[in-house]
Write a structure and sequence with these properties.
With 375 residues, the chain is mainly beta.
């Protein structure tokens, strides 16, 4: 099927329609369309949007934007299908959708400054419907391709991904002050393309993992960011969280890369921050906390993987904690009245055990020293 535009009638809300796709390919070309609407436009809460398979390919934007779905949740059913969002002209590709999508691909086939972005809808159609900027919810896979300096701007709206998130080399994810959440019931990958031996990191503002307990989101990079080949340890870093990292449920698996957390850290009872398997996980594939005093908000049952302890301040935990490996460089770590279980306590990036003689007044793990404390 091919059309220049799919939209509701200019006769208003009395002309309610549905978009239902179970397979095949729908091409929307965005040529000679009514400029008072988006190219794909379901104006009213009563409109039905159902997508269980197939491909919806929007080739370019025209008029107010590219995708506008104002359907109420009761009128939405998405269990499959791929939406391809292509920039092929000189307009930004604007998405304003109350509906989620299964798989989404952002693609740019022209060389210019136009971008994909989440934005508000203003005065849409004959009834002048408005809708605030909506969060983007991808139930399965979200891909930002690398053609022609692709840019995706969230305008601070949250983005949620159910399985895989791929940001190819040359693409930009402008997160603003949003929260990027990984949820769902399957293992997934966060792929960050950058095949150069340097200090490049993909930044996020807030990063949340809320997957089924035991399911992972694993960080993947390119060969030149492998710790076995980088020219400096810090070139292995690939994820940088500017604000808060919250592991509500599931596992944030750093793989063979490193993750830096620059503000708050919270790990609930069904959460795991990083992994470590002796003989498999590189010792420099760390999760690193920010420098200075920091409280790690943890619950009993929380697990930490390969953690780099390197601080000029004091890191304090709020519950019993289990840490699979600590690479100890410097800093004070206060377990208060709680118990800390550690499988491997190593000196820096080595597998040499950290000895009592390696400690000092500014390099030690300590507690409250009450008779009833853990340890």
């Amino acid at each position: 099927m091919g059309a220049n535009q799919i939209r509701t009638s200019v006769l208003g809300a009395g002309q309610v329609g549905s978009y239902i796709q179970t397979g095949g390919t729908t091409n929307i070309y965005g040529v000679n369309s009514n400029t008072d609407y988006y190219v794909f436009n379901l104006t009213f809460p009563e409109n039905v949007f159902q997508m269980t398979g197939g491909t919806l390919h929007i080739h370019q934007t025209h008029g107010k934007g590219a995708i506008f779905i104002n359907s109420d949740p009761a009128n939405v059913n998405v269990t499959g299908g791929t939406v391809i969002c292509e920039i092929n002209n000189t307009q930004d590709f604007i998405i304003t959708s109350k509906a989620p999508f299964w798989d989404m691909i952002l693609r740019k086939t022209v060389s210019n400054a136009n971008i994909h972005k989440l934005d508000q809808a203003v005065d849409i159609g004959s009834t002048d419907v408005n809708l605030a900027t909506q969060p983007l919810v991808i139930l399965n896979d979200f891909t930002i391709e690398n053609g022609n300096s692709e840019v995706f701007t969230t305008n601070n709206a949250d983005v949620t991904i159910g399985r895989n998130f791929s940001i190819f080399e040359g693409a930009t994810y402008n997160y603003g002050t949003n929260t990027t959440t990984f949820n769902g019931t399957e293992d997934g990958e966060l792929y960050i393309g950058h095949n150069t031996d340097d200090g490049y990191e993909q930044y996020f503002y807030n990063l949340t993992v809320n997957k089924t307990a035991g399911k992972k989101i694993t960080v993947k990079g390119d060969p030149q960011k492998d710790p076995a080949v980088v020219s400096a340890e810090w070139h292995n870093r690939l994820v940088h969280v500017v604000n808060d990292c919250y592991i509500k449920s599931g596992i944030l698996d750093q793989g063979i890369q490193s993750i830096r957390l620059f503000q708050g850290v919270k790990v609930d009872e069904d959460g795991q921050l990083a992994t470590y398997t002796a003989g498999t996980t590189p010792t420099t594939a760390y999760v690193m906390f920010r420098d200075g005093d920091l409280t790690v908000f943890s619950q009993v049952g929380a697990i930490f993987g390969n953690i780099k302890f390197n601080s000029t301040g004091t890191v304090t935990f709020t519950s019993d904690v289990y840490i699979k490996r600590i690479g100890y460089y410097s800093g004070l770590y206060n377990i208060a009245s709680y118990n800390m279980k550690v499988d491997y306590l190593h000196r820096k990036e080595t597998t040499i055990n950290f000895a009592k003689s390696n400690g000092s007044a500014s390099k030690m793990i300590y507690g409250d020293a009450n008779p009833s404390d853990g340890g």
